[in-house]
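Re-running the complex after MR caught last week's input typo. The corrected sequence lines follow. Everything else is unchanged.
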Amino acid sequence: MTQLIHLLFFPGGLFLLALGMGYEWLDRKLLARLQNRQGPRWFQPLADTVKLLSKEEIIPQGANPWLFIFLPVVALAGTLTAALYVPLFGLPPAHSLPGDLILTIYLLSLLTLGTGLAGANTPNRFSLVGATRTLTQLFAYEAPFLMALLGPAIVAGSWQISIINDFAGRNWLIVTQFVGFLVAVIGLMGKLELPPFDAPEAETEIVSGALTEYSGRGYALFRLAKNVELVVGLTLVASFYLGGLANPLAFILKTGALLLIIVGVQTLLTRLRLDQTVGLWWRYGALLVLAQWLMIVLAKII
Amino acid sequence: MHTNEHTAQIEKFIIPIGPQHPALKEPGHFEFTVDGEIVTHASVRLGYAHRGIEKGVESRNWTQNLYLLERVCGICSHVHATAYCLGVEKLAGVEAPPRAQAIRELVAELERIHSHYLWLGVTAHEAGFDTLFMYTWRDRETVMDILEAISGNRVHYSANILGGVKFDLGEKEAQTIRQGLSFLEERTHHYLEVVSQDALFLQRTRGIGVMTLAQAETIGVIGPTARASGLARDVRLDDPYAAYDRFPVPIILDDRGDLSARVVVRLKELLASIETIRHILDDLPPGELTVRVPRKIKPGEAISRVEAPRGELFYFIKSNGSEMPERIHIRTPTLCNMASVLTLAVGHHLADMPMLLAGIDPCFSCNDRGIVVQYGGDDHDHWTWERLRQFGIDHYKQLESGVF
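Corrected-run output:
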C-alpha cells in the first residue's frame, strides 16, 4: 500500500509531475525576467498541459499511428521510472540496486530516443531534419554526460545512486571535480535541448523540430516528460556535485541554485549550430572529462 | 521553367521555408535543397503579399495617394512618402522650403534608427539570441516615443505633404529628441560591443555568407548589404535629396562582407544617424513649412530615388495632366538584395539560412508587385478571371476527393 502511494502520489507520480511543472514555470519565469519580459503566471504550465490534453490529436498521413501514439507514452514512462532511482525531494530513492546509475541515465535517454523516433516516424521534412539533429546531438552529449556522472561514482566506489549521494553528503565534489560539474550541467542542458543547445528544435529553422507534427495529447506527454527529466536531471547533478540531498530543504535550495545557473546560461548565449555543438562536446567536453577521470583514477591508485 | 526545375529536383530533399514559417515575419517561399545539413540549391518565390497598390494609385488623386503610398511599408513609411513627394514636386516644378526639407531628413534618420533597431532584434532572434532581441526592442521604444511625440503617430508618422511637411519642431520637441538620442547612443555603443565581442554570436556571424566586392557589384546589391561588402553605394551621398546636401551623412563601409559586417555596418549607421540628427537640430533652417502645389500636375515623367533603411528606393511617376497619376512604379530595395541570398546560400548550413535571409533585412510585402502562378497549365502569364475561378474550383474538388 505504501509502495503504491510512493509510486502514484508522493514522491513519484502526481507530486513529481507537479514538481516538473513548477520547475518549468520557474525556468520560464526567470528566463523572461532576465530577458526583460513579464513571463508566464504560476499556473501556466498546468494550463498548457490541460489544454493540450483536451485537444484533438491529429495523426499525419504516412506516419505509423501506433508509434505516433505510444512514443510519447514511452518517453514519459522512461523519465518517470528514472525518478524512482534518484533521491527525489531529498528523500531516499524509492528503489535502489547496485549499478542503478547506469539504469537511470539510460532511462533518461528514452525521452531523446522517443523524440528522435517520433520525428523520423512522420513524413514532415522539418520533423525529419529535427530527428536527425536530435539523434546527432544525443551522440554528442551522452558520452561526456555519462562520464561526468561516473566521476563521483568512482570516488565513492559504487555505482549505486543512494551510496554516491551519502558519500557526496560528506564531500562537496564540486570543489574537487569542477570540470565534471560543468560538463554535467551543460550535458543536462544538451539533454533537455535548452538554449543554446536547442538546434534540434530551432524554431526559426525547422519550426519545432522532431515534434512539429504533434499537437494534442502526444505533445502534452512529451512536454511532461521533459519537465520530469528536468527535475530528475537537476536532482542527479545536485546530489552528486552539490553535497548530496539529505532533506527537502537541501533539495529545494540546491536544485534551485542549479536551475538558476542553467537559466543564466540560457539567457547569455546564442544558439549553437549543430556542428558547433558536436565540436564543442567532443573537442572540449569529452577530453576535459577524460583528463579529470585519469586524474581521479591515478589519485585512487596512489 | 519553374515546372521543369521542380521535376528535376523532386528526388532531392527539399526543405520548404514559407509561405508560413516562424523564421519569416511576412510570407515568402524558399526552397532549400539540402545534402544533410548543407544547402546545395536555393530558390525563392515571391508575390504572396501582392496588394495591388500600384493599380490603386491610378484611381486616387495626388493627395490621397500620399496616404496610400505611405502604407506600402509599415517600417519605412516615411521614405515612401518622401520619394513620392519629391517626385511630384519635381513634376509640378516647385520645391519644398529648406525647413521642410530638413524636417524630412530628420524624420527619415529617426526612421532609420527605428528600422535598424528592429532589424537587430530580428537578426538576434534568428540566431537564437533572444535576450538581445528583447533588449533591442525595449530600447527601440525610445525612438518610437520620439516619433510619437513629434508627429502624433508611432508607425505612420505622416510627416510629408505635397510641397512640405505637416508639423514644425519647437525647442521642446528638440529637447525630447536630444534626450532620447543620448540614451540610444549609449545603448548602440553597448550593442556594438556585444555583436563584435560575444564569442558565440560571432561564431554564428563571422565568416558566414561572405560576399566579395566583385560579387556585390555583379549581383547588384544595395543599401547596408552593399556597404558591408565595401561597395560605396548610398543615394544620400550619390544624389542628395531633401536636405542631405546641407546635412550630409558619413558613409559607413566595411570590407569583410560577412554577416558580422552587415550587423556592424548597420549599428555604425545608427551612430551616424544620431550625429546627423543632432546637426539638423542645431542648425534647423528658419522659414515656411509648405509651398503651394497645384491640384493638377503638369504632364510628364519623373524619377525619384531615396535611401530607405534597406537601400535605394526607386519611384517612377508619370502624370497625364489630370488630378490622378497615370502610372507610378515602385521598386523597393528588398528585390535587389534577394538574389544575394540565393547565391550565398549554396554551401552554407541550413541553420545559417534564416540569418542569411535576415542579413539583407527583407521586407516582402513592400517588395511584391505581382503574382506568378506556378502550377496549372503552360500559360503562366495570362490569367483571366474565368480561368482563375475555374482553377480554384478544380483545386478544391481535387482536395476533397483526396487525389491531390
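None of the earlier attempt is carried over here. The radius of gyration of chain A is 19 Å. The longest helix of chain A spans residues 125-156.
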